[in-house]
Amino acid sequence: MRKKRNRAIDSLVQTAVQAQKRAYCPYSRYPVGAAVLTDRGRIFAGCNVENASYGLSICAERAAICRSVAGGNDVIRAVCVVGAAARPCGACRQVMYEFSDKDTELYLVDLDPATGRRRIERTTVFKMLPMAFDPLASGLLPANPRTSSRR
Ligand code: THU
What we know:
Elements: H1 2-21, E1 33-38, E2 43-47, H2 60-70, E3 76-83, H3 90-98, E4 105-112, E5 117-124
Parallel strand pairs: 3-4
Antiparallel strand pairs: 1-2, 1-3, 4-5
The chain binds tetrahydrodeoxyuridine (THU).
């Protein structure tokens, strides 16, 4: 069981590393890759996609979340973000929180493609967003969103 899980996390990290290479970031020159592991074991990748109208740029984490939702997945088991000193921005923390539970892991991979330096930190989505605006606590969603009419 643990082996299977480790294998899933390995592919999650590899997927995010590959996604970083596809980042479209001609303005910031700061490539970010992300990947999401769903509760059904599927992995979805995302990268940052910038725009000449800078404010329209989308972060890698949100790109990956959007793909997992479009793929029919609600709950995420783990997220991986790859970048030089990668840290999800505040907006991405809230968007990841929406699809996470208290155990959803967050792997932060500090990878600078220029030097190849790589360091991994593990935390959780909930820890990265203390006192979050919570869809359940606020009463905006029923207690179990997985069985709600949202689907
Ligand atoms: N970026 C991400 O993709 N994820 C983050 O968590 C932080 C920032 C992107 C947005 C922009 O394309 C570039 O990094 C510089 O801010």
